[in-house]
Amino acid sequence: MKTIGVLTSGGDAPGMNAAIRAVVRCGIYNGLTVKGIMRGYQGLIDDEIEDMTLSSVGDIIQRGGTILRTARSAEFKTKEGRAKAAEVLKKHGIEGLVIIGGDGSFRGAQLLSNEHGVNTIGIPGTIDNDIPCTDYTIGFDTACNTAIDAINKIRDTATSHERANIIEVMGRNAGYIALYAGLAGGAEIIIIPEVKFDIDEVCDKISYGIKRGKLHHIIVLAEGVMSGLELSKMIQERLPKLDLRHTTLGHIQRGGAPSVMDRIIASQMGSRAVELLLENKSQRIISIRNNQIVDDDIDTALAMRKEFNFKLYELSKILSI
Ligand code: ADP
């Protein structure tokens, strides 16, 4: 193996840059030529490829986003699109491809490997933490830190006005950001897709808190359940006197300087991706499980199911009484 490529695909996440830096620097350290593919699979099809040097990844470990940009590509979902992508890889002599992205990007990698024999290694990068094979994805920790920073600020003003606040967080169909940020931010109520939603239970808890003399009610809502506005309307129908506001955190959760944890796991995963390619391994997804960097066959990884941490959810309920 002489030349490898790296791309970021799907939703961006803080820490992707740290992973790119690790792939490039570990690749060069091991005598490889490393090429950066811009704009994910679409940039690959369009032949947007640049040579990476040690300095092209200088000064990026602390930056959110991805210097390689990211994109979604409908063309790559077609056989013809993937054939074009394989041709471009061949033209540049790229023998191994590192894909930093979510499970959609990994499905694309699986097809590229199966149809064209491309050596692919996947690194999980998404703030949603919804990839089954890994305990943590790159970007999740930073997104949770951003969310608790917002919760802290909203709590200050909620307490002053003795208000209730709904804070809608991201996570797509998963409730990980809501659960972790809600627990770490001391939220009174956490609403996530993994647990059946019961509006009466939510309102009873708010009423109980008011009787108990609570000065604020922080309700962390995962976007996969409903919007903050919808929940606000449902609560106000039942508790019309409640002073209630809602805030949607939105894309601030996707940006910002990556946390220590995200920088460290991204660096380890990027390094492992290069090692695997040098060991002539292909179609692997890198994960962190029980604090160890591990890798699985892509078919096995994509077939895994994530066990939701219900114990943590139960704990959040006990601690928020
Ligand atoms: P993520 O990787 O964050 O889950 P997406 O699901 O949007 O994000 O996937 C990113 C890109 O990966 C898509 O735009 C598409 O080019 C490619 N992709 C996703 N799913 C598939 C699939 N089933 N087959 C081929 N390519 C796919």
Query: What class would the helix/strand composition place it in?
Result: alpha/beta
* Tertiary shape: elongated
Question: Would you identify the CATH architecture of the largest domain?
Answer: 3-Layer(aba) Sandwich
In total, the number of strands is 11
Largest beta sheet: what is the strand line-up? 3-2-1-4-5-10-11
Tell me the Rg in angstroms: 22 Å
State the low-pLDDT regions, or none: none
Oligomer: single chain
How many domains? The number is 2
**Secondary structure: helix percent:** 40-55%
Keywords: Allosteric enzyme, ATP-binding, Cytoplasm, Glycolysis, Kinase, Magnesium, Metal-binding, Nucleotide-binding, Transferase
Active site: 128 (proton acceptor)
Pathway: Carbohydrate degradation; glycolysis; D-glyceraldehyde 3-phosphate and glycerone phosphate from D-glucose: step 3/4
Pfam families: PFK (PF00365)
Protein model, in words:
With 321 residues, the protein is α/β, with parallel strands linked by helices. Helices cover 43% and strands 18% of the residues. It has helices at 16-29, 40-45, 79-91, 103-116, 140-161, 176-184, 199-211, 228-238, 260-278, 298-303, 310-319; strands spanning 3-8, 33-37, 49-51, 96-101, 119-124, 164-169, 189-191, 217-222, 244-248, 284-289, 292-297. The strands form 2 sheets. A 7-stranded mixed sheet has the order 3-2-1-4-5-10-11, sandwiched between helices. A 4-stranded parallel sheet has the order 7-8-6-9, with helices on both faces. The radius of gyration is 22 Å and the shape is elongated. The model has no long low-confidence stretch (mean pLDDT 97). Adenosine-5'-diphosphate (ADP) binds next to α4.
